[in-house]
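Hi X.,

You mentioned you wanted examples for the new student's onboarding notes, showing what a folding record looks like when two proteins sit in one file. Here is a clean example. The first protein comes first, with its sequence line followed by its C-alpha cells.
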Amino acid sequence: MTATLFDPIQLGDYYLKNRVFMAPMTRARTGPAGIPDELVAIYYAQRASAGLVISEATAVHPRGDGWPGAPGIYTDEQQAGWAAVADAVHAEGGRIFMQIWHMGRAALSESIEGQKPLAPSPVAATGEIPNSKGVPTAFDTPEAMSAAQIREAVSAFATAARRAIDAGLDGVEIHAANNFLIDAFLRDGSNRRSDEYGGSVENRSRFLLEVVDAVTAEIGAGKVGVRFSPTNAVFGISDANPEAIFTYAARQLSRRNLAYLHVLEPALDSGSPMSAGLPLLAPALRESYDGLMILNGSLTQQTGQRALTSDAADAIAFGVPFISNPDLVERFRNNIALSKPNPDTFYGGGAEGYTDYPAKELESA
C-alpha cells in the first residue's frame, strides 16, 4: 500500500505519528554561549506535530563552533538548555533528534579564539559567512588535522551524542553535509590527504564511519541518523565523482542498522542553484542504502507525496515551510494555505519571525 505523508512510520527505536519531518535549520537564537533558552524551547514545541523534529546544527567541540548564535552541546549549561527543549517537545507529544556538527573549515578564526579552523587539508572554503558582528567575512585557510585531532573530533561527536540523550532528546543526526567537517573529509576537492584518511573512497569515508561507530557505540544505532548533501556545492565544496564516494559511504552505513539516512538535494523543478548543475544522486543513494531514507530539498506537499508514492523516500523533511507554519502538518492535512516566512528574521533576532507565527484556525480551504 502506498504510504502518505500522514501515515505513521517506524524509525529506528521509535514509532512516529507521521512522515512530515522538520528539517534542521540554523536560527541563531542561542547567544554567544550557545545555550538554548525558553524561547528556543517554545519554538521547537510549537512544531512538535511533525513526525520528527530535527534540531538546528549543534556544535560538538569549541573549535568546531563558529556560527554566531548557533547552539552547542559540549558544556553542562548547554546540555541543561537542551533538556528544557526536549521536555517542551515531549510535553506536546513530539520526538526530537539533535543534529550534531563540527564546522571544520567553515569556522572563522575569530570565533574559535584566534585558532585556525580544522579540516582534512589546508584548502579554504570559498565565499563568506557572517562574523560575530554580522559582517560577511571570507573564510580562513584551515589547518590540516593531525591524527590526534581526528581522534579528538571522533570522541567529541560521541560525547555530544551522550549529552544529547542524557538531556532527554530522542537521538542525534550526524551532520555529514554542506561543506562542514565530515563532508570536507568525504570530498576530494577539500581532502588532499595522502594518509589513511585521504585518496580512495574507502579512506575518505574513514572519518565519517569512525564518527558513526563511536556515536552508535555510545547511544545505540536506533537513535542515530546521518545527513548527506551529495551534490551541494555550497562554499565551494566539490568532488570529481560524487556518486562513487556517496554510494560507497551509503553502502557502509547500511551495515550499521541506523535509524535513517537523510539526503539533502534540491528538487528537480525547484530552480535551486545548490546542485551547481550536477545530476541528482538521491536515486542512486536510495538503491545503495538499505534502510529508511528521508528526502529534503525544496519539496512541497505535492512533490513530497510523489516521492513517497514512487518509493523515492520513506519520509520527507520540510525546512522553510516549518519556519512560518508551526502547524504545517495540519495545514497539509486540511488543505490550508501556507503562511509566508520573513527571510530577514531567519538568522538571528528574538521572537519576531521565530515564535510569533500563529497557527491557523483549522478549517478546510
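Then the second protein repeats the pattern, sequence line and then C-alpha cells:
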Amino acid sequence: MEVRIRLQKAGKKANKANNYRIVALPRHGGRDGRTLDILGFYDPAKKPAVFSVNKERINAWVAKGARMTETVRSLLKKAK
C-alpha cells in the first residue's frame, strides 16, 4: 500500500475559514478519506499563518516509504 503525506481540508465551509490537517493517507483514498495518522495542521487564514507538525512522525512515515506532496514538502522547508 502506497502512502502519501498530504493536506486534508478541514474547517467551516460557510465562511471559507479553511484550515488543513497534514495526514498520512493511502494513495488511492480520497482527499477527505480515512486517515492513517494525523501529523500536524496548517491554518493559512491567520496572520501570520499557523503551522505545526510532528517531525518525528513524518520521518517515521518517510522511513516506511511514504511520499510527501509538493505542498507539504514546501511547508516543511519553510518551517525549518
